[in-house]
Amino acid sequence: MTNTDFSVQSFKGGFDNNFSYIVTCMRTGAEIIIDAAIELENIKPFFKSSPSAIFVTHTHRDHIAYIGSYINNFPEINIVGHPESKNNFDNNKFIPVSDGSKMKIGNLKIKAIFTPGHYFDSICYLVENILFTGDTLFVGRTGRTISAGSDINNLYDSVYNKIFKLPGDTYIYPGHDYGEVPSIKIEENRKISDLLQAENKLDFIDKMDKYEKNRKIGS
Length: 219
Ligand SMILES: [Fe+2]
Description:
Shape: globular
CATH class: Alpha Beta
Strand content: 25-35%
Bound molecules: fe (ii) ion
Distance between the termini: 49 Å
Oligomer: single chain
């Protein structure tokens, strides 16, 4: 039994088909934002209340691009993220979480799952049957590991040993619109992507290597 009626509104824009989300507890009206990747004016008409926090999936520039304007507009807002990325934010507003941390937004429970790999401070946030995956997992593939702060071994562990241990009917809501559809169930995602069908870590590294090589030819 659940008493956690909630809504998720998706917004696309920003640097590269980024997604930001508003998550609302329908019982209490409490609201949070996942990533400040979209200009505030595009989202503002859709708030039902003053959002209490921005949950940061990782601190790549495009995902925190507009955080300053959100803070100016909502002075009470907090920033939730990885302890090692606190220097990106005003100390008074920053709430560091740890792996497995559980928080509440109104009646809604939200759980932080650390998923390093695409970036050292990547976090996925689980609300009921929805996982906000940032750049760790997209529709059709994982995030890439080409930037400083990336680690392919960690990415494998995060995707295969953490995300894939969740129920297969969990929906992922990623940080960019890179797939055929904006969101997908984990089990469906694994069916459509070779990168998500690795037999082990070495196989994953090999598949990623091939993916990057094909990508260069294609672009
Ligand atoms: Fe990223």
